[in-house]
Design a protein that fits this description.
Layout: H1 2-41, H2 56-66, H3 81-88, H4 101-113, H5 117-144, H6 157-167, H7 176-189, H8 194-229, H9 237-248
Length: 268
């Protein structure tokens, strides 16, 4: 009798934890299924250029040049990361290319020795302020959509067009991050209220299904419209659709580059 009562108490204490773990696993499985379904549903869209008659040699050459794996010859060595940053304006070397690191270090030591402690602090502060100002300017240029400062994932007329499409409307997926944070808090402290946790988990499953459906529809629509506007693009339908879906899941204030159109504007 005592053993039976002890087992019953142990089972009642363990049941909410097991139930919460099962709910969390189901949420993770649904999120993974979301990405798989979006990947499977975004099929390539045929464009008018696909129906033009071409010879097999021309078609193979066109496929090779349109492929993202094809890299045209630049006729010059690939620039290093520091050279690219200097060209973009987000990095500025503190010494000239003709100087070595040891020469610059020696020059800075001589400069420091020729200054008082207060003058050296003011000099360092001036350099730090100039560096911060350059970073702010680079960030402002990135927010404004300047192609020279954008990340590779955001470059191109197709990506700019998709950003304007997504930014011109409101979507349910805009609430994904706040709801995910709220659900995480509920799962952490939900063991004290198992009945409430069960109700919230059921509602969360319904919301995830809504996110999934809207993401599929949005990705297909954005990919179709982008490929119709840019029929000769080398971007795949999946990459364009997933870019639109990722943009929609971010709150409007957190998006980079910043929205260039207002909600309700017509994008053509």
């Amino acid at each position: 009798m005592i053993a039976q009562c002890s087992y019953r108490c142990w089972y009642q204490r363990r049941t909410p934890n097991v139930y919460s773990a099962l709910i969390l696993c189901s949420h993770i499985w649904l999120v993974c299924s979301t990405f798989r379904l979006i990947a499977c549903s975004l099929e390539p869209v045929k464009t008018p250029s696909d129906n033009s008659p071409e010879s097999p040699e021309a078609q193979s050459a066109s496929v090779l040049h349109d492929s993202k794996a094809y890299t045209p010859k630049k006729g010059r060595p690939t620039p290093t990361r520091k050279e690219a940053e200097i060209h973009a304006g987000s990095f500025r070397s503190r010494y000239s290319p003709n100087e070595t690191w040891n020469e610059d270090r020696k020059k800075r030591k001589e400069l420091k020795a020729s200054m008082t402690k207060e003058e050296w602090k003011a000099y360092k502060k001036k350099q730090a302020d100039a560096s911060k100002q350059r970073r702010r300017e680079a960030q402002r240029a990135m927010d404004s959509g300047d192609e020279r400062y954008l990340l590779p994932r955001d470059r191109g007329e197709e990506r700019r067009y998709i950003r304007n499409l997504v930014d011109s409307k409101r979507y349910i997926n805009n609430l994904m991050m706040p709801l995910a944070l709220a659900l995480l808090v509920v799962m952490l402290f939900g063991n004290k209220f198992p009945a409430v946790t069960a109700m919230i988990s059921t509602g969360a499953l319904v919301v995830i299904l809504v996110f999934l459906l809207e993401g599929i529809l949005l990705g297909r629509k954005a990919a179709r419209m982008a490929r119709e506007k840019f029929p000769h693009t080398s971007e795949s339908a999946f990459s364009l659709g997933f870019y639109a879906y990722g943009r929609a899941t971010q709150p409007r204030r957190w998006r980079t580059p910043k929205p260039q159109v207002n909600i309700g504007d017509k994008v053509s």
